[in-house]
Write a structure and sequence with these properties.
This protein has 240 residues and is mainly alpha-helical. It has two domains: 172 residues; 67 residues, LOTUS domain-like (Nucleotidyltransferase, domain 5). The strands form three sheets. Strands 1-3-2 form a three-stranded antiparallel beta sheet. The protein has a three-stranded antiparallel beta sheet with strand order 5-8-7. A hairpin with a 4-residue loop joins strand 2 and strand 3. Helix 1 runs antiparallel to helix 2 and helix 4 runs antiparallel to helix 9. The radius of gyration is 18 Å and the shape is globular.
């Protein structure tokens, strides 16, 4: 998956209602014209709309081939339980599809883990260390942050200088927990200890709940095993 993943790619502000509508279109619960009307209203030019549509396509409408089964799993969750959080589903798709989005999420998650907030300057500094001191890096980091704020995972205050994480949202169903676990494993690209799974900063807005080992034990494509210390390790079966 990683060699073909776009290095940045998530270069547009994506409102949650656009992402939800794109997901509904893919699920057969809405028409393409409805999404087009929303995007037409929000964009003054065709070029800007096209760029936004490209991100929505990658997330929901035309995901990369290697991400397609994962996206379909999300759509089936939404079809079976329409109240499933569109923010959680879109977040999972974003961290799997766009490593840049995942890195911003990871950095925000780490920086806000102790006191609940951080400065935008800290986030930009960390991203510049990874992607370089370029205007594009800064602008695209802002696009991700603005999207996360719109998805109601962050608040911005002090004239935009401070980011505060909102209360953790518990994922509603075991199926959603299993799906989000796979999103984490795909995003980080390695097995994770079950004791640290929920604390992975890349999913800082969401809680996986109790009895995680039991919930994951019935996931057909997730493997649970004990390491040399007796701790449970979670991995994707397809990656073994």
């Amino acid at each position: 998956m990683r060699p073909t993943a776009p290095q940045i790619g998530f270069d547009r502000f994506i409102r949650l209602d656009w992402a939800r509508k794109a997901m509904e279109v893919r699920a057969g619960l809405a028409e393409t014209d409805e999404l087009e009307a929303m995007l037409d209203e929000a964009h003054s030019g065709l070029a800007a709309k096209k760029k936004t549509k490209t991100v929505l396509n990658r997330l929901w409408l035309e995901p990369r081939k290697e991400v397609e089964p994962f996206a379909q799993g999300a759509v089936e969750l939404f079809q079976s339980v329409p109240s499933t959080s569109p923010a959680a589903l879109t977040w999972g798709m974003a961290i799997v599809t766009y490593p840049f989005f995942a890195k911003v999420a990871e950095i925000v998650g780490r920086l806000t883990s102790l006191q609940g907030d951080c400065t935008t300057a800290e986030v930009h500094r960390r991203m510049a260390e990874i992607y370089g001191e370029r205007e594009g890096t800064r602008r695209m980091t802002n696009m991700v942050l603005q999207s996360q704020i719109d998805w109601e995972t962050l608040d911005r205050s002090d004239n935009g200088k401070t980011l505060t994480r909102k209360k953790i949202v518990a994922l509603e169903t075991p199926d959603l927990v299993r799906w989000m676990t796979k999103a984490v494993l795909k995003s980080v690209g390695r097995p994770v200890g079950i004791g640290t799974l929920e604390a992975q900063p890349v999913i800082y807005p969401f809680g996986l709940g109790e009895n995680l080992g039991f919930v994951l034990s019935s996931a057909p494509d997730v493997d649970l095993r004990a390491d040399s210390t007796g701790s449970q390790i979670v991995s994707l079966i397809t990656e073994q």
